[in-house]
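task queued by scheduler; priority normal; single chain, no ligands, no partner chains; default sampling; output format set to structure tokens
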Amino acid sequence: MNGIGTIHPPHIVIPIMKTIRSIIDWFVNPPLTGPRSALLVRFMAGGVFLSEGILKFVYTNQGVGRFTKLGLPFPEFTATFIGSLEIVGGLMLLCGLLTRIFAVLFIVEMIVAILTTKVSLYFGTSPLPLPPSPPKVGWWAVLHESRSDWAQLLTSSFLLISGPGPWSLDAVWQRWRRSRDSSASHGVSVPVQTVREF
């Protein structure tokens, strides 16, 4: 059969489903072997995203005004969406919950931020005010003005690769699930409790 109602043979569907499941598992079950110092990286990245998200609502020039000057489509919606993402995602990074998912979203955001603001700064055509003191345009200006973007991009990349570390809600959730599954497989009924592995 072709078109709507096509039935795909199991040897095609099963590998696709396994791949999708492994991708989801990779995102929601990060390794518990990451360094405890990942907590500091999470606090740095999460704290900056949280404060920047709040600023987008408190100061118009940091939210709708900035997005309008950059020529982004639907600046009010975009500013509200990005501000909300930064607030929620910042809190999630601080707690270490769904860390890899929000790390990917923030990596994309930082790449878009660099492309929309720093390329025009390099050429001196930025619609945003130029830096108040030299270097105002060119490569050195881009390096100087993108230091925060670069730091956020790299910290988010670190969290994506290594996970949130053992001191995170992701780790607590994962240990609880393993404890529950282990108890269920042995047919033992145990009270629900958080297993500590510090």
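post-processing summary
- The chain has two domains: 34-165, 168-198.
- Residues 168-198 form one domain.
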